[in-house]
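Hi support team,

I've been running sequence recovery on a batch of backbones for a student project. Most finish fine, but this one hangs at about 90% for roughly twenty minutes before it completes. I'm not sure whether the input is malformed or the queue is just slow. I've pasted the structure tokens below so you can try to reproduce it. Let me know if you need the job ID as well.

Thanks,
M.K.
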């Protein structure tokens, strides 16, 4: 069986590295070989957690080499040399480059009938699609507009190579500048622009506006790469929950050892955590099904949400949705959406929510009768039958599904309360912790991320409030 590896040299890509890993595992690379160039944002931590789940071989750049280009070149050369006898195909990529096949279902299928030992794949330069700020969703679904095929940049190529047949030197991405780009069978989705804020944060050119104009190409729309999203979301959900489990144990250690240095980073003091808040009563929850004459359920065969009548219920196929509403005297109620029977998979898919958890955090705007993601800040449309929430009895089974979340948020949606909840929670529950983090105020979620770089996934951090 063909064995393949994608090679990546990376620096400070913590918020998107999980999607890069998930995408290239989904399209069939056997191994991902990643070198971290001494990132300061937690990229190495995220890679290390991911490496516990998949064949991701993580290393650090050679500090004896003074420039990033030298370190990158040395890593690329060593990776190809070391893979000489192990891999049939290898490919060097950048963190904003995603390999995509038009029809082939995997790397193995794409390379099966290769006419030679090297397969060039042209760039396809994607613009911002009008996005100004970072997104927690995959770049594949966030950026769907690209430059026209005739754009000169598209003549740049990445190469799938057979390392045993490779001559000295690295594959040259500029080797096909005299040829027209071709996307008939494959392309490199190049998300060089991403959103405007991220671009200008990382761009180091002397003329950033000119660079932005070059990369922000939005002439044509393409969503063909969406076919990889179910697989990449599934893998990304594992990575998200591995990071949150790591976060639980780190927070547990902070409380156990009364770590003053970390508490200071969080804007807290030991005194704030020594006594639980007595001014807040225990939160009350209401449990509801979604619908009246029909109920919204998860179709376990298709993964879609469908209305199901009482006479149509097939308990082997349909899994009822439950919404747990945290009663509040404000106009915005916190809520968690989950299915009545635990999922065999790792996350509940809800359009508009990026969280990739079995339980989806939500904000319910009572006065406006709308549902919002606390992470994306966008409204979420849930097609509730009859536009009705039907309150049901709060059974022991339902409460047990919410116990960890209730422990973490018993003293409010703030960092001090979260840490006291961590102290009381005897075991890690990634889904509950992710929902609790999503409901923190934006500034507190950012402090948590800064204090624990690499283990607070972007897809559970609360959205930045709109500027006045």
């Amino acid at each position: 069986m063909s064995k393949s590896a994608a090679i990546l040299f990376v620096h400070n890509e913590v918020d998107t590295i999980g999607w890069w890993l998930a995408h290239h595992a989904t399209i069939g690379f056997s191994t991902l070989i990643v070198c971290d160039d001494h990132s300061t944002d937690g990229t190495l931590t995220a890679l290390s957690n991911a490496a516990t789940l998949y064949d991701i071989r993580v290393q650090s750049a050679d500090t004896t080499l003074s420039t990033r280009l030298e370190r990158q070149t040395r890593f690329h050369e060593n990776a190809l040399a070391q893979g000489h006898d192990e891999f049939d195909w290898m490919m060097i990529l950048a963190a904003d480059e995603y390999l995509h096949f038009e029809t082939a279902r995997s790397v193995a299928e794409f390379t099966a009938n290769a006419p030679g030992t090297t397969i060039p794949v042209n760039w396809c330069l994607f613009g911002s699609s009008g996005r100004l700020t970072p997104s927690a969703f995959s770049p594949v679904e966030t950026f769907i507009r690209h430059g026209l095929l005739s754009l000169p940049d598209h003549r740049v190529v990445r190469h799938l190579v057979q390392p045993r047949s490779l001559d000295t030197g690295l594959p040259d991405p500029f080797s096909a500048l005299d040829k027209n780009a071709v996307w008939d069978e494959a392309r490199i989705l190049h998300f060089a622009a991403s959103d405007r804020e991220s671009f200008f944060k990382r761009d180091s050119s002397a003329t950033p506006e000119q660079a932005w104009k070059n990369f922000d190409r939005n002439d044509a729309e393409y969503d063909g790469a969406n076919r990889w999203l179910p697989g990449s979301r599934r893998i990304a959900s594992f990575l998200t929950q591995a990071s949150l489990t790591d976060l639980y144990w780190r927070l547990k250690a902070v409380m156990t050892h009364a770590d003053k240095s970390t508490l200071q980073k969080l804007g807290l003091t030991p005194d704030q955590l020594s006594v639980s808040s007595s001014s807040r009563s225990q939160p009350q929850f209401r449990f509801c099904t979604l619908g009246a004459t029909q109920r919204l359920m998860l179709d376990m065969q298709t993964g879609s949400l469908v209305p199901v009548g009482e006479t149509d219920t097939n308990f082997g196929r349909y899994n009822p949705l439950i919404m747990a509403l945290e009663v509040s005297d404000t106009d915005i109620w916190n809520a968690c959406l989950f299915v009545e029977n635990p999922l065999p998979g790792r996350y509940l898919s809800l359009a508009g929510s990026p969280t990739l958890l079995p339980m989806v955090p939500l904000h319910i705007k009572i006065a406006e009768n709308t549902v919002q993601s606390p992470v994306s800040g966008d409204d979420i449309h849930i097609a509730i039958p009859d536009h009705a929430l039907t309150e049901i009895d709060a059974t022991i089974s339902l409460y047990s599904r919410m116990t960890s979340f209730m422990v973490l948020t018993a003293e409010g949606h703030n960092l001090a309360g979260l840490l006291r909840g961590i102290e009381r929670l005897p075991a890690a529950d990634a889904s509950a912790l992710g929902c609790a983090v999503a409901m923190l105020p934006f500034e507190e979620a950012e402090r948590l991320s800064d204090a624990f770089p690499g283990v607070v996934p972007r897809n559970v951090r609360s959205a930045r409030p709109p500027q006045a």
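--
Follow-up from support: It reproduced on our side and the slowdown came from queue contention, not your input. The chain has a mean pLDDT of 93. No action needed from you.
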